[in-house]
Structure formats: C-alpha cells, structure tokens
Request: fold
Amino acid sequence: MIREILSPLYERIVRLQCRHIPHHIAIIQDGNRRFARLQHLPRSMGHRAGAARTEEMLDWARELGIRHITIYSFSTENFQRDADEVEDLFRLFKEKFLKVTDDPRVHREGIRVQIVGDRTLLPDDLREVIERAEESTRAYSGYHLNVALAYGGRNEILQAAARILECVKSGECTPDEITPELVEEHLHAGRNIPPVDLIIRTGNECRTSNFLPWLANGHESAVYFCAPYWPLFRKIDLMRAIRVYSQRVDTRGVMPRPVS
Reply:
C-alpha cells in the first residue's frame, strides 16, 4: 500500500530532476537470457519478454520527448550462439518488422524505423521484411528508431573507411577533405544518425561492448549502467538514466544538442 503511494511521488521527483532530455539515447538491452533462466523459461521466451519491454520503453521515451533511440539487438558476435537461438531471434525480428508497416502508432507518431549493421549477414527473408519496414517509414521524421542488427562497432568504422576510399578513388573527394564530419556522413551508409548523448546498459554489466564507438565514445556520451535484466527495466530506470545525463550537462557545462 505504502509502495503504491510513494512510487508515483518518487517518479515525479526524479522527473523534475531530469532538467535536460537527451536528443539520442542508445540502449544495450542485456539480460534476456538470464531473465529466462531465472524464471525457468526457454531462452526464446526471455527474448520475447525483452521485445515486449522494448515496445513499452519506446512509449516512455516518446512521452519524455526523446527523438532518437538506437537499440542493440544483435551483434556480429551473436552469430556464434546456438543455431536454434539465432533462428528464434531472426524469427522474432521478422515478426516485429512485419508489424511496423501496419502499426497505427508508427504512422500516427511519424516514427522512422531503420537498421544499422551489416545487413548482408542477415537471411534474405529477414532483410526483405526490414527493407519493407524502412520504406514504409522513410518519409517520417517525428521520432527515429534505429535497430542495430548484425552490428559491430569496429566493422561500422571499417565500412565507412571503405566508402570514403571509394569516393577518393572516384575523385568525389581528396584525402585532404577527409574530416570527422565526412566520416560521420559515411557511417551507417549515410543514415544521418546524430551523436549519442546517453548510453544505457542493463543486466549489471559495466561495459559498452564497442557499441556506436564513433557516435558515443567519440562524443563522450554519458553512460548509465543498471542492474535489472532488460525484461525488468522500468520507466523509473529510464528516468534515472536521464537524470545522470542531466547532471552531467549541469556539472560539466555540456550544451544539450539541438533538437531536430
């Protein structure tokens, strides 16, 4: 009874402490498998619980005014997992991307959905569904959801370097014109993803796993590590992470990025 009374009050207090809202947050959704083990469930159910929590989190983020979100869903290292688990994950990704084209929230809120990562590593049927979802939301600019699939931080920089090298070879630019801004233009095949303001990692793991190294580490984003496994992540946890970012802006004199 007391908890039911105090929780909304505590949430309001934390919300007041979030004086600055990050423009772009990146989330490492860790702990689905450990959650399933804790609940004596198959791993596939842990991943589905995590996917359900992701949908809730996106509603919280829109409510708080966060315009850009990148979620770390499947790394290049994850291909080394058990083949059945990888197949279950790809089936789940396909199901969720299929929903995008018909989800009224996506079209009502103007949410642009796109993936980052090496899509050539993905199965043809999943890649086809992803491309359909991206095309159906291409014109939207209200909110931006980037899903990192078959993603590796070093690999994204290597791919950007290869694209820039092709530009030099074709005469589109010269080596002297290679700047940090030019590199950012070629990251993620020109998807115009802004620098990361805040990285969140769940599951009590205190590392960023080379996630968005140029856009996050290169721009000194705030980092928030928390204990809950991803399916147990709550709105108050998101707000605590934003509070950390807000405190960093205040104490270090960092100017919040302009909203676009």
In short: Residues 23-152+195-250 form a domain with the Undecaprenyl pyrophosphate synthetase fold (CATH 3.40.1180.10). The chain has a mean pLDDT of 91. The two ends are 43 Å apart (CA to CA). The beta strands are 24-28, 68-75, 111-116, 143-151, 198-201, 222-225.
